[in-house]
Amino acid sequence: MKKSSDINEIRGTLLVLLTAMISGVSIVVNKFFVVKIDPLIFTALRALFIGLIFLIISLYVSKINKQKKINRVSWKYLILIGIIGGGLAFWLFFTGLKITTAGRAAFLHKTLPIYAVILAVIFLKEKITKKQLIAMLIMLFGLILIELTNVSYDIRIGDLLVLGATFLWAIENTISKKVMLEKESNWVVTFSRMFFGSLVLFAIIFIIGKANLIFSLNSQQIIYIIISGALLFLYVLTWYWGLKYINLSKASTILLIAPVISLILGFLWLNEQVFILQIIGSILILIGAFVIARIKSERKIEERSENI
């Protein structure tokens, strides 16, 4: 009979694998939507609606668990999660996306596991085994092979903005995992990320004078926001739920499966050309993901003993 910790490990791994699949689908679907709507408006509205949904879920779960209030130590972190991950990172990303290419932005965003792993080792005391490190390097090499056809080598200001956003998301994920290790609900963390983030985005919208665009959306654009919002809801639902059970270093690396999913869907749905290097890269990513999925999440022994 499996131990509770083993069951949680499997549960977390499956949830993050599902996150990666949802991300792969979202990349393809959002290609159609973002060009039709101002990206800042698009992101802010989705974040607000999803934040409110997770507020209701958080209150319901708290009622069931008879938890009357959010942990006092969490509030400053919860607000930071929203400001950094749900607000500033999105602003930097979409600003950068305007002045660089989609392919370059996608590649830079997928470097997130590098920063997440470093932060997880330093601040969360996560343990990285030699096998896990080798698997991660194989997956990153596979990612480079996939993206070779889309990425050029001259540096633009938009690239730096996207890279900054990616690093902010790594910081936000680290804070989120820390808060969950302190026994805060993943539902509360998800609510904070989306709701407080939406407040930051709406503040930016009003400051730069784009508020009128909110009231000029047509029915088709609203449908786009609803469909994309549903995908984002499933993404954050599975991501933070899975992150509750497994290490950030393991979870963030598994997300590298997303471009493989996008590549397959692009070939099947959009008749996009697939190159031999992309096929090799995809195989390497899947091999690395298989190895990492079988590795059990651990924190450094000295840190675990402090919490017993």
Can you lay out the helices and strands and say which pair or pack?
Blueprint lengths: L3 H31 L4 H26 L10 H24 L3 H8 L2 H12 L6 H18 L9 H25 L4 H22 L3 H4 L4 H25 L4 H7 L3 H12 L6 H18 L7 H7 L1
Helix pairs in contact: 1-10, 1-11, 1-12, 2-3, 2-8, 2-10, 3-7, 3-8, 4-7, 5-7, 5-11, 6-13, 8-10
What's the order of the H and E elements?
HHHHHHHHHHHHHH
Kindly give the count of domains: 1
Content of β-strand: under 5%
Taking the sheet with the most strands, its summary is: none
Give the low-confidence spans: 301-308
Mean pLDDT: 87
- How would you name the oligomeric state of the polypeptide chains in this document? single chain
Q: Count every helix, treating DSSP H or I runs of 4 or more residues as helices.
A: 14
Into which percent range does the helicity of residues fall?
over 70%
Structural category is mainly alpha
Inertia-based shape: globular
Instruction: Report the C-alpha radius of gyration, rounded.
Output: 19 Å
Number of strands: 0
End-to-end separation: 24 Å
Provide a compact summary of the structure:
It is built from 14 helices and no strands. With 308 residues, the chain is an all-alpha fold.
Model description:
The chain is mainly alpha-helical and 308 residues long. The chain has one domain (4-307). It is built from 14 helices and no strands. The longest helix has 31 residues, at 4-34. It is globular and about 50 Å long.
